[in-house]
Amino acid sequence: MAITEERLRQSFSEGGAQEIYQEIKAGGDFVGFARRFVFDKDYRVARSALWGLTKAEKSELSPLQPMLNDFIDLAMQTENSSVRRLSLNLVERLAMTTDDLRTDFLDFCLDHMANPDEFPGIQAVCMKLAHRMCQFYPELMDELKRTLEAMEIDYYKPAVKSVRARILSGKMK
Fold first, then answer.
1. Residue 108 φ/ψ region, left for φ over 0, alpha for ψ in the -120 to 50 degree band, beta for the rest
2. pLDDT tens track for 50-86
3. What are phi and psi of 12, to 5 degrees?
């Protein structure tokens, strides 16, 4: 069955996302698929496309590296929390160097990781991404640790508490 906008608009389960991934993999065109569907104005199409891509192995996602800033922009600009979470998960799985450091994205991650009204999955991945970006500069890492230590941790879910603890203990890669 071909991957179409209509198919991606339909609600589907984990199994459906896995099927989409298998079809992308068989076609061997992760970049073409991402360009065609991930940035669709219909959040259902974008969400389903992103969900399928998140099933890929990290090495399979490497062709998407040139689109890193596009995924970052999508995460920062979308109103849909599912699209935000899934695009952040893709960003987290792509390589990031000092040349990729964007202060607007770092600020976004710092804001969303500490916002108790944000979904825990978004908070946790924003915390991981902030940590990755801050590793490039010791002064930023110190600021991140101070921010994490100042968080009223009782207001956060276990996933966020776990990531926070791993960063503060130095166990986060």
1. alpha
2. 999 999 999 999 999 999 999 999 999 999 999 999 9
3. -145, 170
Q: State both tokens at 91.
A: 């960003």
Instruction: Evaluate whether 142 touches 153 at the Cβ level (below 8 Å).
Output: no
Angle at 51 between CA 166 and CA 82, to 5 degrees: 70
Phi, psi of 102 (to 5 degrees): -120, 120
Across the range 147-161, mean pLDDT stands at 92
Which residues 6+ apart lie within 8 Å of 113 measured at CB? Answer: 123, 124, 126, 127, 130, 160
* 170 Rama class: left (phi>0) / alpha (psi -120 to 50) / beta: left
- What's the mean pLDDT in 3-9? 93
